[in-house]
Design brief:
Two copies of one chain form a homodimer.
Chain A (H helix, E strand, L loop, with lengths): L14 H20 L3 E2 L5 E3 H7 L6 E5 L27 E3 L4 H11 L7 E10 L11 E10 L7 H14 L7 E7 H10 L5 H8 L2 H15 L4 H11 L2 E2 L1 H14 L7 H20 L1 H4 L13 E5 L12 E7 L9 E11 L4 E10 H11 L2 H4 L6 E3 L7 H13 L4 E3 L6 H10 L4 E5 L4 E5 L5 E3 L12
Parallel strand pairs in A: 1-5, 7-9, 13-14, 13-15
Antiparallel strand pairs in A: 2-4, 5-6, 6-12, 7-10, 8-9, 10-11, 11-12, 15-16, 16-17
Helix pairs in contact in A: 4-10, 5-10, 7-8
């Protein structure tokens, strides 16, 4: 069943597709809560001054009113602290374009009510005015998990976050996923040692490696006044991937080739962090990693790999970064991403180190519905469909439905009396596995899969979960 | 814990409050699905031409972009039918202000993919630019249930909808609720017989009875050129309430007093519908209604009553109407409302009769959090809090947490090693009922409620649900 969109970029699912999406959301929520992440929701709107601190202004939807006479939207500060950390002349409101910026504001404003480290998940719609295309929407669910600490957030959490993400991705009915991990300190430290000056600009170019290839990256890098050997170093580094020990060894080899010591504080710290994260993740995820040295399509669960080409374009990442891809569908783009941000959340007195990842839920639903259209249709809206004998039997039929409902069995009564065969067709169309007949003194339930029909005691009867 | 709002009218809950809200939403969803209602979600934005068909333009938020250069929002029609039934010169997009208008559009556009009667629920945020005040927000959850049929929607469904609503309201931890039921055909038929011409205008005035009282309603009605006896008839009718048989009798008595026959087709049909709905609802809800002739504060579950003053301001209702109030808190306003609309959904070829109710979820959350602030705080974010002995024990502690999580027990590890007493304080602050100690060769779990501490087998241990 094709997806339906009458306004370009704003997808709407069928009821069966929404039921499927909700089942995925429910399972994700359960995972997050088992890891003791707390649910929050932030308002959909933010002052433009907050949005413009981190956002691309081209993608922001602003809010207006049809009449100037309408009551004004009043932006007031909370008692504790101003909400505009970097006041600008722009006032007014806009729709949030991600959940990280609102989360950062929420933590600053509600700091006095939260327990730190604060672990939260947030599954909410966001809006971006980008040009719609396959897999890119203007209204979509993001599913975010973040941890923010008051002073120090141990590197162990970077590993735990990767493991939670692997766990969450396991839930999705998609081909195997590879989660790439890197650490920006390693890239930055290495670049510094080979004498690259504009590190942020080089990171943004290297981040395009998977998309445009090494040759074009080199052209762009040399156009930025990098020497041939500096460009080769950046590209050589981005080519390193594998498990923890092999990657650390390859970086040291490359340092030797490039004629650098590899002993700067930043690079050393990056390598320590990368080593600890990979050791913990590989040990905890060992049943998979040990059996798969390389990307492996035989696995049904996600695999994890260090990949030095993962840079993440956003400026606020300071250490570990993550990106997940469906194996063999890299051109679809990352299905999840995130990283460590030690300076993003800041209440004006102290920075609160944080760590977060985001799963592009609506994009994944679109992927699944396009490639496995039948997946949503398999779910039923009702378990037992009650045959209506005649109009005067509505009340009795309703009472039967109520008994089933009180026992947590989904039940519905046919909307009008007609031939039994026609009613059974409706039951099948709605996915019901059982139909129920009201006789004079007995009630019969027919299993539509097995064809078995029997007189039942409604207070005892249970649907057979195996048919 | 006070609610926090830095932008007036846009509430944000604490994590504990959100957890509470989610638990209510989950229970409502379960109820709706047991009644075989299907979940849908519509996009948050609609073309202004769609919104302005039913909405008050003062409350609509329009969407804009910071730059004209940004890619345009393209409104395309679906292949089957135009989305603008009543094209206007206003283009552009706005945020939806309710879920009924988007639902009506959704049914028209996806008609070919739906099974009728289509029963759907929808729990989603809506936005209204009204002046914020207690219990009135600019961003809030509506929780809607609707049934739409292709040709005929039997009156029995009006009773079933009331019963589902009573069932759903039973879930909410609020004082007893009264659900009022009326039928607009009764009012309209009665008004016609006494010679009232502008029936819609009179309905809107009578609808204010509970708020402004009979005297002021009479002043307004006579100002509208109603005769004294017409105004008295309208007010007398609005004063009738009680159970089905007593209300039907009282209406007949009033007709006699007013010197009318009460035999017009419209009035007779209204009375038939009201009688059938009240008979079914009262019979099915009899355990409550039989023991409470009048409004009764002793009941903990909702009660139901016919009330002829309920008119509903909206023009599109054509028969049964519902309004629910917290008993003793009528000034807070209706907590749920809805009714029968036989002409709202229309694909240009045929009208599809419908029936819907809406629960003001965010308003109810605000009510609960203001009056029972402790209710959200009772929920914990974690079941077992694992004591961290030293930094080097992080991995072993994480493994313990993973075992508990795999058994659906929420677990977390303390973020840094410190004195046990301090760690236990953190556990208590987070609502954990258990702390877990990792010894050299054993694992001990302490029940913080009973104080009992014992060596456990992690693969077997279960939290005691009764402490």
């Amino acid at each position: 069943m094709a997806k339906h969109t009458s306004v370009s970029g704003f997808p709407e699912w069928t009821p069966a597709q929404r039921r499927f999406e909700l089942s995925i959301i429910d399972r994700l929520r359960e995972r997050f809560e088992l890891y003791a992440f707390e649910p929050i929701e932030t308002r959909a709107i933010e002052p433009l001054s907050v949005l413009l601190q981190k956002g691309d202004d081209k993608e922001i939807y602003t809010l207006g009113r049809l009449h100037d006479a309408a009551p004004k939207d009043i932006v007031t500060s909370s008692e504790e602290k101003p909400i505009d950390q970097a006041p600008t002349k722009i006032d007014g409101l806009g729709l949030h374009f991600d959940l990280t910026v609102p989360f950062s504001r929420y933590v600053q404003e509600l700091k006095h009510l939260l327990t730190f480290p604060f672990k939260r998940y947030q599954i909410q719609k966001v809006w971006r005015g980008e040009r719609p295309q396959e897999g890119r929407y203007r209204e979509f669910y993001q599913c975010d998990m973040d941890i923010v600490a008051l002073e120090n957030l141990p590197i162990f959490y970077d590993a735990e976050m990767a493991l939670l993400l692997l766990d969450a991705l396991s839930i999705l009915p998609i081909p195997p996923v590879v989660l790439f991990i890197n650490n920006r300190k390693v890239l930055q430290g290495f670049y510094q040692e080979v004498g690259i000056v504009d590190i942020a600009a080089v990171l943004r170019v290297v981040d395009k490696m998977a998309k445009i290839g090494a040759e074009k990256v080199k052209v762009q890098l040399t156009a930025m006044n990098l020497t041939e050997s500096q460009a080769d170093a950046a590209i050589g580094l981005a080519g390193i991937r594998g498990n923890g020990s092999s990657v650390i060894f390859a970086i040291q080899q490359l340092a030797h080739t490039c004629g650098i010591q590899g002993d700067s504080e930043l690079l050393q710290q990056g390598l320590r962090e990368l080593r600890e994260v990979s050791q913990v993740v590989e040990a905890a995820w060992s049943d998979l990693v040990s059996s798969c040295d390389a990307i492996c399509l035989e696995c049904s669960r996600p695999i994890v790999e260090l990949n030095l080409s993962i840079a993440r374009g956003l400026d606020y990442y300071t250490g570990t970064v993550y990106e997940g891809y469906i194996i063999g569908e890299e051109s679809f783009g990352a299905i999840c991403s995130g990283g460590r941000y030690d300076n993003l959340v800041n209440d004006g007195r102290q920075a609160m180190p944080g760590l977060g990842v985001s799963i592009g839920l609506t994009r994944l639903m679109g992927y699944i519905f396009n490639r496995q259209p039948q997946i949503a249709e398999q779910s039923a809206s009702v378990d037992v469909f009650i045959i209506l004998n005649e109009d005067s039997a509505r009340f009795k039929s309703f009472q039967v439905a109520q008994i089933l409902r009180s026992r947590k069995i989904r039940a519905d009564v046919c909307h009008r009396p007609m031939a039994f065969g026609k009613q059974i067709k409706i039951a099948e169309k709605r996915g019901a596995r059982y139909v129920c007949f009201l006789n004079e003194n007995t009630i019969e339930i027919k299993n539509l899969t097995t064809g078995v029909q029997e007189v039942v005691d409604l207070d005892q009867w249970q649907p057979d979960l195996h048919t």
